[in-house]
């Protein structure tokens, strides 16, 4: 045994993948899929018949859950697609800073201060107006593939 101390610096995360594989033929409308390395909600799925050579193909149309852009992909139905792990968490809104960051209360009583107001104009205005009126607001934060964004608002009444 040596008396030396070894310090290892870990640059990796916990090993949890941002996506999981799922067979293309089993992905349905309103599910999620990774198109061009972006997490998307599937809005349309069509499957073509098998040709003389080859597989049936699934044509996916998805809306990026963070930017709202429409993306399309065609994958053989027997092949695997990447499906993002999408989670939705509700937080109570505590404060809005002048530079557009929000302060949110987590379930364990800590604050989360790393999110900006959403880019969606309507939702952004609803949050600012409700906060200015002194209402108790709950925001839903959707997270997938290392990104987070406020995507919904609930009014639970005046403070």
From TrEMBL:
Residues 1-12 have a biased composition (Basic and acidic residues). Residues 1-23 are annotated as: Disordered. Residues 85-154 form the Translation initiation factor 5A C-terminal domain. SUPFAM superfamilies: Nucleic acid-binding proteins (SSF50249), Translation proteins SH3-like domain (SSF50104). Keywords: Hypusine, Initiation factor, Protein biosynthesis. InterPro entries: IF5A-like, IF5A-like_N, IF5A_C, NA-bd_OB-fold, Rib_uL2_dom2, Trans_elong_IF5A_hypusine_site, Translation_prot_SH3-like_sf. eIF-5A seems to be the only eukaryotic protein to have a hypusine residue which is a post-translational modification of a lysine by the addition of a butylamino group. The keyword Magnesium does not apply. GO terms for molecular function: ribosome binding; RNA binding; translation elongation factor activity; translation initiation factor activity. GO terms for biological process: positive regulation of translational elongation; positive regulation of translational termination; translational elongation. Translation factor that promotes translation elongation and termination, particularly upon ribosome stalling at specific amino acid sequence contexts. Binds between the exit (E) and peptidyl (P) site of the ribosome and promotes rescue of stalled ribosome: specifically required for efficient translation of polyproline-containing peptides as well as other motifs that stall the ribosome. Acts as ribosome quality control (RQC) cofactor by joining the RQC complex to facilitate peptidyl transfer during CAT tailing step. NCBIfam families: eIF_5A. Belongs to the eIF-5A family. This is Eukaryotic translation initiation factor 5A. The gene is LOC110803301.
